[in-house]
Amino acid sequence: MKRFASLVSILVISSSIVAVGSSPAGATFPGGNGDIAYITPHGARAIRSDGTGDHPLVPGGAGYGVWDLRYSPDGTSIVFTDVARGGSRIVGQDLATGDRTLILSRSDAPAGYIDSAAISPDGASVMFCGSNRASRLYTVNADGSGGLAEVPSTKGYCYADWSVDDRIVASKGIFNEDGDRLVTTMDPDGSNQEVIAALPPAKQAWGILYYLVPTWAPDGSAVAFAAQRHRIHPDIWSVNADGSGLHKLTDTKRVSEAGPVYSPDGTLVAFARSDDRFRGDIWVMGADGSSPTQVTDTTRGEYPRSWQSTSGMSGAAGPTMGAARNASSAGSSSWSERAGWWRSARIPVIVVRSR
């Protein structure tokens, strides 16, 4: 039996999936509750938790498009990763003007594809990882200056998130031979690592494997992630920052839930609930798992990535439609680089086939 994994879709999920195919959630900083940024097969969009104000953030192209997106700590800008045949890059965008900054070019990026990008609490740095089996964590300046730096002692780690108190949470392990799947906290330099959750090895017979993509609560007290445990369909889990209190926030047997993102005030969690074809809608529930409420109802597939804080904004939450249109046109020639890739909801999964 020879196993092979084909990347179906990456970038959307607090927990990714490894399926007979593949595809992360983002940090939330304290403040008022702004828009929820989410990924679709046609680019990145944002919506309020009551389902109003849906608008584009970053346009999609003919290729894989946007794989991850995070709001800055003050909610006035975004950082996103986009993918084409030539590889991945990291881009910053001002939400008011649509102006973009190239943070990391495709030629400077490490091998593989950039699956996630987390922003430091001061907004000065971005931490990211690649999608190859030898993944590890890297940092780069958010203004695009300087070069990338490898974070020591992080081989095998990916899907990092950066807390308000300057701690990193990341995950390790996906295939059965990787052993236990780990959620680990550490300092930004890779030191002081502490495993706060360990799940049994994934079962290849599931066919679909979700990566563990952890996300911090806005006060740094807890971590949420989606995970499969003893069954194919993942649920959303929560664990305290010290590793105590691991428990489920959802418990459904016939649908998959992934991509949890906390609201800036810490009272809510946005997540994706999807069917077996990864056609997910956005839902919102209490931070304790109570009162799940559907926000979107489409067949295109949607995955929440970040919840905007309004701490640095004046007036209404979120960019105006004019700003979003300006963002669509800014640097438009770069989007023509994408071509010929399979399009899907950006859920972090891998589809594993045996032959």
Description:
With 355 residues, this protein is mainly β. Strands 1, 2, 18 and 28 form a four-stranded mixed β-sheet that branches. Strands 5-4-3-27 form a four-stranded antiparallel β-sheet. The N terminus is likely disordered. It has a single domain, classed as TolB, C-terminal domain (Neuraminidase), CATH 2.120.10. Helix content is 3%, strand content 43%. A hairpin with a 5-residue loop joins strand 6 and strand 7. It is built from one helix and 28 strands.
Helix and strand element order = EEEEEEEEEEEEEEEEEEEEEEEEEEEHE
Characterize the overall form: globular
Give me the count of strands.
Answer: 28
Structural class: mainly beta
Mean pLDDT across residues: 81
The CATH homologous superfamily name equals: TolB, C-terminal domain
Q: Quick one: biggest sheet?
A: 4 strands, mixed
What is the number of helices? 1
**What's the gyration radius in Å?**
18 Å
Fraction in beta strands: 35-45%
Q: Please tell me the CATH architecture by its name.
A: 6 Propeller
Helix content: under 10%
CATH secondary-structure class: Mainly Beta
**Low-pLDDT segments, ≥5 res:** 1-24, 315-345
Q: CA-to-CA gap between the ends? A: 5 Å
What is the CATH topology assignment? Neuraminidase
Domain unit count:
1
Topology of helices and strands:
Layout: E1 3-9, E2 17-19, E3 33-40, E4 43-47, E5 55-59, E6 65-71, E7 77-84, E8 87-94, E9 100-104, E10 114-119, E11 125-130, E12 137-141, E13 149-150, E14 157-162, E15 168-172, E16 181-186, E17 194-199, E18 208-210, E19 215-216, E20 222-227, E21 235-240, E22 247-248, E23 256-262, E24 268-274, E25 280-286, E26 293-294, E27 303-309, H1 321-329, E28 349-354
Parallel strand pairs: 2-28
Antiparallel strand pairs: 1-28, 2-18, 3-4, 3-27, 4-5, 6-7, 7-8, 8-9, 10-11, 11-12, 12-13, 14-15, 15-16, 16-17, 18-28, 19-20, 20-21, 21-22, 23-24, 24-25, 25-26
